[in-house]
From TrEMBL:
Keywords: Repeat. One of its GO terms (molecular function) is RNA binding. It comes from the Eukaryota. GO terms for biological process: RNA modification; system development. The keyword Transmembrane does not apply. PPR repeats lie at residues 89-123, 206-240, 306-340. Gene3D superfamilies: Tetratricopeptide repeat domain (1.25.40.10). SUPFAM superfamilies: TPR-like. This is Pentatricopeptide repeat-containing protein.
Length: 470
């Protein structure tokens, strides 16, 4: 079109921006910010074209550009576009809210929603859905300590209830999309009674409605209720999708229901849904039900090799203390050309640690970086420290602690404290205790672990905080 010297109008640019957004949805993020470089580069070029064609102040076009930047994870650009609007309407506010929600910035989304209300704008059904999604994102946030997280969940619930009440007044609370999002919000906030009420009063239900309620039960540990609702869904002739099956597997996994796992296996096979995530979930469920034979059999049946499925099988054997089978599967993966990832090595090294197979565990740790170019993370260091500490090889533990290139998380120090208890190593236990509290002050598990070391060694000294603290 440009080569033919045809000047695009606002509709043409909106369509191109939407196409770029579809590309962003398929692209894998390349950094911690979640940015998608290919789509982002095209988006920036299109942004330049908007200025060239003097459409940078067209609300219709700018909203599409804002949506694109949000999908690319380029939040600074998205915010700049939002601030550049000559006049903000409900659609543009909703686009910015949606961008925050897509990037799991629930808190920012809700602050923007408050600002929107202060500006006197009327909220419609679309905006309500986005705000309810923001409440869910805030309730699910795990980036802070438990106390702070509970405070966030309380705030999310209060705002969610207010949005629900507002939607009820405006007579779109039982719109299908809004109702589904309300159920999901209450489920994420742990208020199952209110989720059940909304589920019960919805006149029309689709698969998303059933999934939201089943997920709410499964996530809150009400596994029996989740499976009962799954069976009821079958009675209503609603065909389960991948989401339904994953949460049904999660529930059966927690309950250890092997019969349900077998039924779900047939559902997956008959529907031809042997996707990576479903296959891994089924293998994991078989493992949790201690049916490793079924887990291995299903792994061998798969027509495509999914890394997640192999990891699930290795983890299942590791969980049962079968280190030999975990190591065998790792070698089989390599022979089949499946490259292991960080999770694979965590499972194998942990299995070696719990069975005392030190040499093979150490070799796995070394091969991570040497053979597969995988940079060890905190959990890898925790597993290898645990391996050497359980074996009483504290000289290698000390060498590892000195060579760790990153601030380790508390799991490393708690593993070390447990091993010090077994081997009466009081001096190293104090060192591990101090570092555990530096990572997370007032960590109850660290105090309990050091108390056990002292009690086992017959020491009655009072436990203080880390050096330099009271």
């Amino acid at each position: 079109m440009l080569e033919e010297s045809i000047r695009p109008d606002n509709l043409a640019l909106v369509i191109v921006l939407q196409a770029c957004g579809i590309l962003a949805g398929k692209e894998v993020p390349v950094n911690e910010k979640g940015e998608k470089t290919m789509a982002l580069e095209i988006g920036r070029a299109l942004h330049y074209d908007l200025r060239t064609f003097m459409l940078e102040f067209d609300n219709f076009v700018c909203t599409a550009l804002l949506n694109l930047y949000g999908k690319c994870g380029a939040m600074i650009e998205a915010e700049n576009v939002f601030m550049s609007f000559v006049s903000l309407d409900v659609v543009s506010w909703s686009a910015m809210l949606s961008a925050y929600v897509d990037q799991n910035c629930g808190e920012k989304a809700l602050l923007l929603y408050r600002q929107m209300l202060q500006e006197g704008l009327q909220v419609d059904a679309v905006t309500s859905v986005v705000v309810l999604q923001a409440c869910s994102a805030l309730a699910e946030s795990e980036r802070t300590l438990v106390i702070a997280r509970n405070t966030r969940k309380t705030a999310a619930l209060e705002i969610g209830r207010a949005v629900h009440a507002d939607a009820y007044k405006k007579q779109f609370a039982y719109d299908l999309a809004v109702g589904n999002t309300i159920i999901n919000m209450y489920g994420n906030c742990g208020v199952l009674s209110e989720a059940e009420h909304v589920f019960g009063v919805l006149n029309i239900r689709n698969i998303v409605t059933w999934n939201a309620m089943i997920a709410a039960y499964a996530e809150q540990g009400e596994d029996e209720q989740a499976l009962m609702l799954f069976k009821e869904m079958h009675k209503h002739c609603i065909t389960a999708d991948e989401v339904t099956l994953i949460f049904a597997l999660k529930a059966s996994c927690s309950m250890g229901c092997l019969d349900v796992c077998h039924c779900l296996y047939f559902d997956i096979i008959c529907a031809g849904r042997e996707t990576s995530s479903l296959s891994a979930s089924l293998i994991h469920a078989y493992g949790r039900c201690a049916s490793l034979k079924d887990a291995t059999s299903f792994l061998n049946e798969l027509s495509e090799f999914h890394l997640g499925s192999w990891n699930a099988c290795i983890t299942s054997y590791a969980g049962e203390g079968d280190c030999t089978s975990s190591l065998f599967l790792l070698e089989e993966m390599k022979l089949m050309g499946i490259k292991p990832d960080g999770l694979t090595f965590i499972s194998v090294i942990s299995a070696c640690s719990h069975t005392g197979i030190v040499v093979e565990g150490a070799e796995c740790f070394m091969s991570m970086s040497c053979a597969f170019r995988i940079v060890p993370e905190g959990k890898h260091y925790g597993s290898i420290v645990d391996l050497f500490a359980r074996a009483g090889d504290f000289s290698r533990v000390n060498s590892l602690l000195k060579s760790m290139p990153m601030p380790s998380d508390e799991s490393v120090w708690l593993c070390l404290l447990g091993a010090c208890h077994t081997h009466y190593n009081v001096e190293l236990a104090k060192y591990a205790f101090d570092h555990a509290l530096m990572v997370q002050p007032k960590h109850a598990a660290a105090y309990v672990a050091l108390s056990n070391v002292y009690a086992y060694a017959g020491i009655q000294d009072a436990i203080c905080g880390p050096k330099g603290t009271n």
